[in-house]
Every structure is written in structure tokens, then in C-alpha cells.
Amino acid sequence: MNVTLKQMRAFVALAEAGSFTAAARQLHVTPSALSLVIKDLESGVGMRLFDRTTRETRLSPGGREFLPAARKLVEDFGRALEGLREFKASERGVLRIAGSPIYSGTLVPQLAAEYGQQFPGVRVHVIDALTDQVAAKVANGDADLGIAPERPVPAEVRQTQLFRDPVQLVCPPQHPLASRDTVEWVDVIRHPFISLSPDYTMGLRADLAHHSESLTLEPAAYVTFITTALALVKWGRGVTAQPSHADLLAAAYGLVVRPIQGPRIERRICLLAPREREHSPAALSFHEFLARRFQLEPQRQRPDEAAG
């Protein structure tokens, strides 16, 4: 038995219209062409589905039995096609965005909400990960895209700079440096400094040394999570320096932030995308959303092609 969707549509149309002329008009075919399709269907199923007279066409007992299932199949296929069209137009689907601790707790949810207003049918999942794990999640397919500070990435991942995030002092409101509108690095490093991963510290040291060899950063403590650093600062164990997007987190701990000069240090925040893997329409539209949001060069390419 070889029954086609074309035959099923013709069967349902004829059953509902009650005449070859009306059904053919609905299907935009001739009555003779429709008659051939119905004959082929009846031949395929091995039974007559319609009783035909010169005045009307009625369903046979077998046709009445067959109609509910045939109608459901045609309707389900129509819904499937509509869903695929919506998916292609980025109106439906799932988008998984991995973010490093600071940005998955601040910027990424904000971007997800703004994007969701434009594409409410897309379910956006935020994946929080350590900074050096974001690229790995994009590479192995756990995430469609990633947002994190610039780092060396695997060959199968490309990164595009979205913006630069200035590093700021974070300290308790009663700290001596909190009374200043702007502080200098030479003053910051005189206080116990709470740092994140060794990679983060090495980046700060390199930036400071590039400005002046006299600026030597020796952290009093290293922690993995920014929330731990903020808690230690809150309870008077030292100060820290974090990108400006940590302001909201610092405020939640009752801390204040101050710009740091001499030098001004910025972190490059990047979009991470797979180099080869096929991208969903939602991932493509999110990349275009980011291009508008951060005034990137307009691109119609896949994120991995646009990231070079």
C-alpha cells in the first residue's frame, strides 16, 4: 500500500465538499485530475471509499471509517509545516546561551528578556558556567552561543568582541577608598586584594605592568566565584576589582563601586559561536539582535562565519 499526502488531502476535500467540482475548485485542480487521484487512492487501499451517482458523491462505509484518521493526518501535517515555518522565522524554538558567572547573573538574562520581547515563541535557556567552561559548552553543543570575557578558545569556536567592560573597585561603603569619586591602582593594591582565578589575576598583572613596572598586584586571597569575593569584601577581608557589570551584584551585598584610573583597565566581552555546526534560526536571529544591540557591523552570515 502506497498512499500519498496528496491523495489524503484529495480524499478529505472530496468528503467535505460532497462533489468533485467543488473539491477540485478548492484544491485548484480539474475534476478529472481529482477523479484520477481518488481512483489511485482506492486502488492503493483496496476498497471503494466513495459511492458515486450522477447527482452526488457520498462516502462509502469504508470511507466513513477512514475519514477521521485521514482528516487528523492532514491537519497534523499542516500544523507541522506551520511550526516549521515559525521555527525558520525564529518565532519558535529553543536558544541556549552560556555565560560566565558575572554575565550569566546580569547581562545575559537582560539580553534574553529583550530578545524574548521580539521573539516570544523562542524559549531562551541561560546556562551559567565558569569562564573557562563557556567555550567548551559551545564547542560540545551544550550551548548554542556563549557570552564571556575574551579567552583562548578551541579551534572549533570563534569569538567576536561585543563590547569592552571597564574594571572597577568594589569595596564596603565605610572603606577609605569609598570616599573618592575615582581611585588609582597604586592606592588599590595597597589594600588586601581578593582576586578570582589565576587567569584573571594574570590579566590584571599584565595590564598593570604594561602601564608601570611599579604596579605589582599580590592578592591576599584567590576565589573561584564572584559571590565569594563579594562576601569576603562585605565582611572586611579586603577589596576587589570587577567589570562594571558586577555593579548589580555588588549592590546586593551592600558594596559600592568606584572607577579605577592609572591605568584604566577594560575586559573584552565576546560572543562565542561554533565554527562549523549548523545554527538554528533562533541562534541566527539572536546574533542579529546582538549586532543591533551593540552596534556591530551588520551581517547576514552565520555567527561562526561572522566571528572572524
UniProtKB/TrEMBL annotation:
<dbReference type="Pfam" id="PF00126">
    <property type="entry name" value="HTH_1"/>
</dbReference>
<comment type="similarity">
    <text>Belongs to the LysR transcriptional regulatory family.</text>
</comment>
<dbReference type="InterPro" id="IPR036390">
    <property type="entry name" value="WH_DNA-bd_sf"/>
</dbReference>
<dbReference type="InterPro" id="IPR005119">
    <property type="entry name" value="LysR_subst-bd"/>
</dbReference>
<keyword id="KW-0804">Transcription</keyword>
<keyword id="KW-0238">DNA-binding</keyword>
<dbReference type="GO" id="GO:0003700">
    <property type="term" value="F:DNA-binding transcription factor activity"/>
</dbReference>
<dbReference type="InterPro" id="IPR050950">
    <property type="entry name" value="HTH-type_LysR_regulators"/>
</dbReference>
<protein>
    <submittedName>
        <fullName>LysR family transcriptional regulator</fullName>
    </submittedName>
</protein>
<dbReference type="GO" id="GO:0005829">
    <property type="term" value="C:cytosol"/>
</dbReference>
<feature type="domain" description="HTH lysR-type">
    <location>
        <begin position="3"/>
        <end position="60"/>
    </location>
</feature>
<keyword id="KW-0805">Transcription regulation</keyword>
<dbReference type="GO" id="GO:0003677">
    <property type="term" value="F:DNA binding"/>
</dbReference>
<dbReference type="InterPro" id="IPR036388">
    <property type="entry name" value="WH-like_DNA-bd_sf"/>
</dbReference>
<dbReference type="InterPro" id="IPR000847">
    <property type="entry name" value="LysR_HTH_N"/>
</dbReference>
<dbReference type="Pfam" id="PF03466">
    <property type="entry name" value="LysR_substrate"/>
</dbReference>
